[in-house]
Design brief:
By secondary structure, the protein is of the alpha/beta class. It folds into three domains: 3-118, 3-Layer(aba) Sandwich (Rossmann fold); 179-284, Beta-Lactamase; 348-536, Hypothetical protein af1432 (Orthogonal Bundle). The chain contains 21 helices and twelve strands. A seven-stranded mixed β-sheet has the order 1-10-11-12-7-8-9, sandwiched between helices. Strands 3-2-4-5-6 form a five-stranded parallel β-sheet, sandwiched between helices. Helix 12 (353-372) packs across helix 18 and helix 17 packs across helix 18 (475-490). The chain is elongated and about 105 Å long. It starts with a strand and ends with a helix. 33% of the residues are buried.
Length: 538
């Protein structure tokens, strides 16, 4: 059954995003950027104000900082998980620890981003993924709800309910999905050719009452009967000016109705009656209402089609569930591996692990970004930058397999002990390769495996585990190598005190044969920014 909408539909409402951050500058930047993407943005300066905004308006997504006065992001996430579990939450913070990440995800955060945002496409991508998942979940829920009610209606039909009881149940049920003020069941008297109103449910004064009869040809129903199609009239006043002989249109207008939807009841390829929906609001009815309504009408008109209609809906719902599952798996893939690695690193009992990881990813991001905008970096994409930023923190996950007696030894290592230390590269690689078999390969995992295995290789070929030389070493591993050496020199270790920034740079200059010359040049030219990052994440 085709649909015929005579006056079109209303524009779709923009998705609304709540930005929560105690820094006005950050709120303004985020609001301007997200608004340019086509979303509606509302801001709040802390968790308390955010809850007030949520109580007043519906939101499709919450983007929140963690560190805030009055009510911080952690408490806000807990409140949101209880009161608004269906709204996706994205955490954006510049001071988050590993514990913050895990807590945020446990309390319902969909994603976790760090600021300052290096590439706003990261934020854009996160917003799109979260909102898309919400839309899919909402659709799946809607269809599941529809299926439940269709099943209830079918059960009622099988119990032999009277037509009036069926109609009343239909009216109550359909209110959940269709915006109408009046529902009428009208049947065609084939002897006289007239339309007779059998049952009416309305929250307005009824002028076109039960048992009233009028000629089919002098009504807005005639077109639906002849063509056997759904007719949507979203402007009854305009329709009546063009069809002044329509009795039912006149009566509906007198009752205050401004739009209508007519579904013909087809039995044995003949129109035998109608379900007529009417609303006091113009443009109430949309094309996407029709498939559900036709399913209901089919159950009433042809009970024998019950199984097929339900089967189609179940198949559609199953496809939606599979789609949601696939999209969710793609989004969670990186999160699962990252959280796994971070938790394992924490088990290594290195008190500086979290800050070390944060420094490494920011050093790498800086070097790679400078390279991208140089004449040598045209092949570097935004996806490459995102993968490097996320995967660089996994470079030392293999150290979870190194005994504490060696990993935390005070003083120099023996040759045998250093050989054991070297195995952390292959241990980490094998762990990630195993994870990729379960989660499926992607660019993030492939880069993580390269970094884990090769970040101790040297440009001069004297590194480990394989003694690769020059361009044989993956670019990502070369970037991490510089970042890791600098961080090791400037950090406290069980066997040494930290070097100052200037001394660490001089030591690296003396050993620059270890590093990619182009990348090391970028490191030197940007060493002041490197030092700033180091001091920020001590």
């Amino acid at each position: 059954m085709a649909a015929n909408g005579t006056n079109g539909n209303r524009a779709t409402t923009r998705e609304r995003i709540l930005v929560v951050d105690d820094e006005q500058t950050i709120r303004e930047i985020l609001s301007k950027y997200i608004t340019q993407l086509g979303y509606e943005v509302v801001t709040a300066e802390d968790g308390m104000h955010a809850l007030e905004k949520l109580a007043a308006l519906p939101f499709d997504l919450v983007l929140t900082d963690l560190k805030m006065p009055k009510m911080d992001g952690r408490e806000l996430l807990k409140r949101l998980a209880e009161a608004y579990p269906d709204i996706p939450k994205i955490v954006l913070t510049g001071l988050g620890t590993d514990e913050d990440i895990i807590l945020a995800l446990k309390t319902g955060a969909y994603d976790f981003l760090t600021k300052p945002i290096i590439d706003f496409e990261i934020l854009h991508h996160a917003l799109k993924r979260a909102l898309e998942r919400k839309r899919l979940n909402d659709e799946r829920t809607r269809y599941a709800d529809q299926q439940t009610h269709i099943t209830e209606i079918v059960s009622m039909l099988n119990r032999g309910s009277e037509t009036e009881e069926i109609f009343k149940t239909l009216s109550t049920t359909l209110k959940r999905f269709i915006p109408f003020n009046r529902l009428t069941l009208a049947l065609i008297d084939e002897t006289t050719g007239s339309v007779v109103t059998k049952y009416i449910e309305s929250d307005q004064q009824v002028l076109l009452g039960r048992g009233e009869e009028f000629p089919l040809e002098r009504s807005s129903l005639n077109d639906a009967a002849e063509r056997k199609v759904v007719i949507i009239i979203n402007d009854l006043e305009r329709y009546y000016t063009e069809h002044a002989s329509s009795v039912n249109a006149k009566r509906l207008l007198e009752e205050g109705m401004r739009s209508s939807l007519v579904l013909p009841l087809i039995i044995n390829d003949r129109t035998r009656g109608f379900l007529i929906f009417a609303s006091v609001t113009p443009h109430s009815f949309k094309e996407d209402h029709i498939s559900f309504l036709e399913s209901i009408v089919g159950q009433i008109s042809f009970s024998i089609q019950r199984g097929e209609l339900l089967s189609e809906l179940e198949t559609h719902t199953e496809k939606l569930e599979q789609l949601v599952e696939t999209r969710t798996r793609e989004v969670l893939k990186t999160q699962k591996v990252t959280i796994f690695a971070l938790s394992k690193l924490a088990d290594a009992r290195d008190v500086d692990t979290g800050q070390h990881l944060e420094r490494i990813r920011r050093f790498c991001a800086l070097i790679a970004q400078v390279l991208k905008y140089s004449e040598h970096g045209k092949h570097i994409t935004n996806q490459y930058l995102r993968d490097l930023y996320d995967s660089s923190i996994l470079h030392d996950i293999g150290k979870v397999g190194i005994p504490d007696a060696i990993l935390l030894k005070q003083g120099p290592l023996t040759a045998e002990e250093f050989d054991i230390i070297k195995t952390h590269t292959t241990i980490g690689f094998n762990s990630l390769r195993s994870a990729s078999k379960d989660l499926g390969e992607d660019t993030f995992l492939n880069m993580a495996m390269d970094i884990t295995l090769y970040h101790h290789e040297r440009w001069d070929g004297l590194g480990y585990p394989y003694g690769l030389k020059g361009d044989e070493i993956p670019l990502s591993s070369r970037i991490v190598a510089i970042s890791d050496v600098y961080d090791a020199l400037t950090s406290k270790r069980p066997y040494k005190a930290p070097y100052e920034h200037e001394m660490a740079v001089e030591i690296m200059k003396d050993e620059q044969s270890h590093f990619d010359p182009l990348l090391f040049k970028i490191f030197l030219e940007n060493n002041e920014e490197i030092d700033r990052i180091r001091r920020e994440f001590k």
